[in-house]
Amino acid sequence: MVLYAKEAVDLDAIRSRFARAGGAFPERVAKAVGADYIPADQARYEPDSMRFSAQSPNPKAVSGLLLAIDHR
Questions:
Q1: Domain ranges of the chain
Q2: CA distances from residue 66 to 4, 22, 57, 60 in whole angstroms, order as listed
Q3: pLDDT tens, 47-68?
Q4: Longest dimension (CA), the chain
Q5: pTM higher than 0.85 for the full model?
């Protein structure tokens, strides 16, 4: 997971909250980031490239890009 934000985020705090959160990986990331997280359903992801766009009026908004690799 790569997090994108216009302002600096406290990665140590996010890691700590992530470690304590329950649920699937994307849910844990959302819980760890908190109210500033832009949910995946509010972002547009390009299907065949590592590209997305998201908008928020929140200047502290954080969005994420989860890269899934098909291990064969």
A1: 2-65
A2: 11, 18, 23, 20
A3: 888 788 988 999 999 998 887 7
A4: 41
A5: no
